[in-house]
Design brief:
This protein is α+β, with helices and mostly antiparallel strands. It is 21% helix and 38% strand. The protein is built from one helix and six strands.
Length: 90
């Protein structure tokens, strides 16, 4: 696994895809912390027990909450870190 060094003032965005909800959050790197500057969440429409049942519904949900965060931070999200877990993930 590669170590990522974050610089002060850098904005980082994460996406957590869970069975019950999907959450996107952006934060700005400060001295020894990351201060949350935008967050959005939605019910995991299209997922069931950690398995994608409808890729279209899941993609729409992700797009919607990322756009919400972009509006909050007044910047376009160009990249993000994704967290997803399940027995089927390797």
């Amino acid at each position: 696994m590669e170590c990522i060094i974050l610089k002060k003032g850098e904005i980082i965005t994460v996406l957590d895809i869970g069975s019950e909800k999907i959450v996107c959050a952006s934060g700005i790197v400060e001295d020894n912390d990351i201060r949350i500057i935008g967050i959005a969440e939605s019910v995991s429409d299209g997922l069931e027990k950690g398995v994608i049942k409808s890729i279209d519904k899941t993609a729409e949900t992700i797009q919607k909450i990322v756009e919400e965060v972009e509006q909050q931070i007044d910047k376009r999200v160009k990249s993000l870190f994704v967290g997803i877990k399940g027995e089927h993930i390797e």
